[in-house]
Amino acid sequence: MDLQSIVLWLVIGIVSTIFLFFKKRYSYWKDRGAEYVEPTIPYGNLPFWKKMHTKEILGRIYDKKSGKSPFIGAFFFATPVVIATDLDFIKSVLIKDFSSFHGRGIFVNELDDPLSAHLFSLDGEKWKSLRAKLSPTFTSGKMKFMFPTVVEVADRFNASLAELVTERATMEIRDLLARFTTDVIGTCAFGIECNSMKTPNSEFRRYGSRAFDDPAHSTLLQVFSFQYPNLAKKYFHMRVFKKDVTDFFMDTVRGTIAFREKNNVRRNDFMDLLIQLKNGGLLEDEHSKKLGKLTIEEVAAQAFLFFIAGFETSSTTMMFALHELSLNPDIQEKARQEIDEVLRKHDGKITYESIEEMVYVDRIISETLRKYPAAPNLLRKCTQDFNVPNSEVIIEKDTIVFIPAYSIHHDPEIYDNPEVFDPDRFSPEQIKNRHPVAFLGFGDGPRNCVGLRFGRMQSRIGLVTLLKNYRFKPSAKTRMPMEYVEGNPLLSLKHGIYLIVEKLQIGG
């Protein structure tokens, strides 16, 4: 047999082996009697013909639900995954049977990339221990403690904005709000006065943006680390964030802690609470058991998570809220009327108590998160074989379960006219009549967003500050429909949102 024939047979053998592997693999859900979407070799149910945001990828699968099964089986390349479609099943995954789904399955490399080992990414006992340590830092009491700091930043933000808007101006809102939340989180998480309104290209903000926009590896390598985390960690030393991003935030945390401890500096911020956990393992004035100390790397990772989660999600939530309020002036005026009425009772001051009274503003935030959930998909990893209730289907250990929050929030069977922006969906009566996990703006269950109180507080203060001083109207420069960044797991826009901003006169 000549060389050409040998090569040909070798190629045929390799191709046949690969084909048979995928053929066998793609019978996974069929063999288990589960409803599934037919995959395509070698991409599975991932669209290889064009770039799509994950909300669209999962949305296409979600839309194929028949109601006969609580989930749809799918494949990401050769890996079988679960796309949850039934709210009772989702409640089971997030809450009722949490012990079987407490993991997230996100790649972490604590040794080479300490910032990756934060609360959102960790699983197992490490997550459980860290959650127990950090949960007391987000109580309503601690939010009241930080409240004046956030208001102070909001006042500086408003003063700077007033210089830019003398009477009326068309402004790009996304960047504007990102500067506000950068300053809030920079102050509360790191104790740094970023002053992004005056210096929008500050080093702190630049490295914060790079954490989202400049990942350490290509999408293909990210998929590899997701599917083969041990190989990626042990042999390839793969990172989540680029080394210079990690070095910057680690150095910032070390410097902040060293300065505060040397000079006995105490502040009303998140870093102060983390330092207490680093030094004593117990927050002052907390009636809880001692939970063990945080290392300097753990402090840096949690402060970093607080920054990237807080500045991006809150700024986009406020951005989408202002966009919708510009399109719905009646809702905007109703919110402004509530703000004016409440502030009159509190001497015109934004206080913790006055913000708590602004229930309609809070409904606007909830409706914004329904229509534009910051995290459009939730992840859970099956930690032990799980028998799906009322069926013979077993979800095997280590299987990833995707919960398509965006699709659920836009499902007309759950929300009437889901594309209509209606804050009254979150009146007590309507909430009571809906399924308890129909709204997943902050997740749900023991792994819900630990910082949801802070996120709501920051968004409320930001919106109240803006609405009591400015009126927002649509601009001809706004792009419609909206385009989202495909590689970003959060709901992030490719382009900014331009709105007309009008300064309000006293009593106007």
Automatic annotation (TrEMBL):
InterPro entries on file: Cyt_P450, Cyt_P450_CS, Cyt_P450_E_grp-I, Cyt_P450_sf, Insect_CytP450_Detox
Keyword Metal-binding: yes
Native organism: Hermetia illucens
Binding site for heme: 449
Biological role stated in the UniProt entry: May be involved in the metabolism of insect hormones and in the breakdown of synthetic insecticides.
Protein name per UniProt: Cytochrome P450
Keywords: Endoplasmic reticulum, Heme, Iron, Membrane, Metal-binding, Microsome, Monooxygenase, Oxidoreductase, Transmembrane, Transmembrane helix
Residue ranges crossing the lipid bilayer per the database entry: 6-22, 70-90
Topology of the protein relative to the lipid bilayer: Peripheral membrane protein
Compartments where located: Endoplasmic reticulum membrane; Microsome membrane
Cofactor(s), by name: heme
One cellular component term from this protein's GO annotations in UniProt: endoplasmic reticulum membrane
Example of a GO MF term: heme binding
Keyword Iron: yes
Pfam families membership: p450
